[in-house]
Amino acid sequence: VERTLSIIKPDATRRNLTGKINAKFEEAGLRIVAQKRLHLSTAQAGKFYEVHKERPFYGELVEFMASEPVVVQVLEGEGAIAKNREVMGATNPANADAGTIRKEFALSVGENSVHGSDAPETAKEEIAFFFSGLELVG
Ligand code: GTP
Ligand code: MG
């Protein structure tokens, strides 16, 4: 089965929405197989989002992700990467479908409550960024 890396972002942890967001994942058939709460440093957030380095919102994104704790997690299930992105909804909550996490909880395109890997290769890299082999029970 497939695995993907998910992050519950600071706007959501601040509003105590971790459980409600996790319920959405579980209702969609995604299993939370690893999970931990971290407060990222600016350097760590900057490294995680390095692919967006040239984008105009990079600085703002990094500051936001390091502003308060996040919950990083590994979701597992059939087609987990695509399924997770479906449950998350569009990047901008104004464009997100009804019932998605971003439609229900996101505040703006920046403070959009969740991150999810976008492809098998990035999922692998992003899981390894946060979790060691010991933390990933097969
Ligand atoms: P992720 O799952 O977080 O990667 O979201 P995504 O794949 O839907 O969006 P993308 O990879 O294009 O952008 C990564 C993140 O950068 C988004 O989730 C937003 O938090 C942030 N972001 C994207 N566009 C903007 C923007 O115009 N302004 C701000 N402030 N942040 C943005
Ligand atoms: Mg992305």
TrEMBL record:
Its EC number(s): 2.7.4.6
Subcellular location: Cytoplasm
InterPro entries: NDK-like_dom, NDK-like_dom_sf, Nucleoside_diP_kinase, Nucleoside_diP_kinase_AS
Matching PROSITE patterns: NDPK, NDPK_LIKE
Nucleoside diphosphate kinase-like domain sequence ranges: 1-138
Name of a matching Pfam family: NDK
SUPFAM superfamilies, sorted: Nucleoside diphosphate kinase, NDK (SSF54919)
Family, similarity comment: Belongs to the NDK family.
Function of the molecule: Major role in the synthesis of nucleoside triphosphates other than ATP. The ATP gamma phosphate is transferred to the NDP beta phosphate via a ping-pong mechanism, using a phosphorylated active-site intermediate.
Protein name: Nucleoside diphosphate kinase
Originating organism: Falsirhodobacter algicola
